[in-house]
Amino acid sequence: RGSISSLMQRLKMARKQVPQQYRLVMLITLIAWMGVAGFVYYNTQLLNTYKTSDELEQHSASFEKKYKKYEKVNLPKITDAKYFIDLFPYKRDVKVRAVLQYTNETNSPIDTLHYNIDKDWNPEFFIPNSDLVYEDKELGYLIFQLRTPLQPGDSLELEIETKSVSQGFENSAGNTGIIHNGTFLNNFEILPALGYNESRELSDKNTRKKYGLKPKDRMPELEENCTEHCMANYLTDGRSDFINVETVISTSADQMAIAPGSLVRKWEENGRNYYHYKVDHPSQNFYAFISAKYEVAIRKWNDVDIEVYYDKKHEVNVERMLDAVERSLTYYTENFGPYYHKQCRIIEFPRYETFAQAFPGTMPYSESIGFVINLEDAEENNIVDAVIAHEMAHQWWAHQVMGAKMQGGTMLSESFAEYSSLMTMKHLTNNPMKMREFLKYDHDRYLRGRSGEVDKEMPLYKVENQMYIHYGKGSVILYALQDYIGEDKVNTAMRNFLEEFKYQKPPYPTSLDFMKYLEPQIPDSLHYLIDDWFKEITLYDNRLNEASYKELENGKY
Ligand SMILES: [Zn+2]
What we know:
The chain is α+β, with helices and mostly antiparallel strands. It is 32% helix and 23% strand. It has helices at residues 7-17, 20-47, 53-67, 187-190, 205-210, 318-335, 383-393, 414-428, 432-451, 467-485, 487-501, 511-518, 528-535; strands spanning 77-88, 93-103, 110-116, 124-126, 130-136, 141-150, 155-164, 183-186, 193-194, 240-252, 256-258, 262-269, 272-278, 283-284, 288-292, 295-301, 304-310, 343-349, 362-366. A hairpin with a 4-residue loop joins strand 1 and strand 2. Helix 6 (318-335) crosses helix 8 (414-428). The longest helix has 28 residues, at 20-47. 35% of the residues are buried. The model has no long low-confidence stretch (mean pLDDT 91). Zinc ion (ZN) binds at residues 390, 394, 414, 417.
């Protein structure tokens, strides 16, 4: 007796003990198991590789250590972009050719172009009169030298081709941007980034420490007199300002493809659908390319086409969405200024992501937060109205005027958008208690958020992209302000600020530029609010100390 430990002994024993008729079954099972394991190994380790989270961290740290020195290198700006995109949803493949115009808007000649690339997109560069002088395949950094430097004010046209080809299956879900029904890719994803890419840096203090990196500033300090920091906005980081965008995009015969701007032409070729789009007004270099089997609901508002692209089974809130867009367009054009696109699209996408986002003239909107919930009974304010009003407001606050990349920048987009949304809600409901629910939501967002702050809470006008401040606190403050001084006064300040800065070349405005428009609207007696609400962190500890009542002549109290 005793335990049998060696594998050989066990196998010998098995040969004696396992009956003849089971042996074949076991052998077949073993071969099948090895076959499946080999197939999985081939797909997840050889055909598609992946990095562990430790490897990814290491990668980011090395990238920063090696290339941070190029962060301030002189680069041209992207001033014009043309895309030729072929989507193959059922193969989950995409091919991109981009014709880009770069302009030297600096005061000195530029002789090198730096790129940060994503290997999965296999980029190929066609830059006239240039040589690839540096290539780091591991970390994805390239430097091209221009044989003739680009002089100040001069432009250069070049092409970049990328493609993403799906093969087999991956260890994780893979790229959920390209799928059978509901492809959603944004321009940052499909093209290599020009210059050093700060967003690749590790952000967590402790993780950075592990790799010997100093803690990162969340944002440059707010400046009274603008320096170089005002030359970039926080969205495009100085790589571009407002640009022209044109796209020819094709997809399978049963799908529609959407790109930013007005549809110029639509045709069929080789059993595929083709679309040509062009933006009506120069826009932020920030947009999406989308394809799916869509139904389209259209409503005309003045000369704007309001369009909702939705899945046939998800029509339940579509009318409500058209109403919400119309309501936003009405309030924002009356109070803030014109809308500069000829269309206004809401485009449903699958719930791999659960957000709605504002691109110029378009709003991709996750099915999970508006299309697959039935709001039939929600008579007054509801989440769809609020989300659409917020995203629509970004067509003014972000897409017309964008804050400089420094403290306070997101107040000018997120606080303003959330305030605008609250104002459309205010006009929608007759019930002040309903409004209270919305305000409470934003108010709680602030209080909850500040309790979880790991770094430092900033006053609103110096917000460092902290969501609980720019959404929660910012919107409640602006809403309270219109309660105190009047809706007209707050909106006048916002409108005048927009009028000065909309669609302007840099320098981009700061929160102090807005304060200059706000202050004259506030009577002297309330001037303390500027300090208490915007420039300091003030919390109120209100309590009811005493209550009394008396009977009136009519018998009521
Ligand atoms: Zn927003």
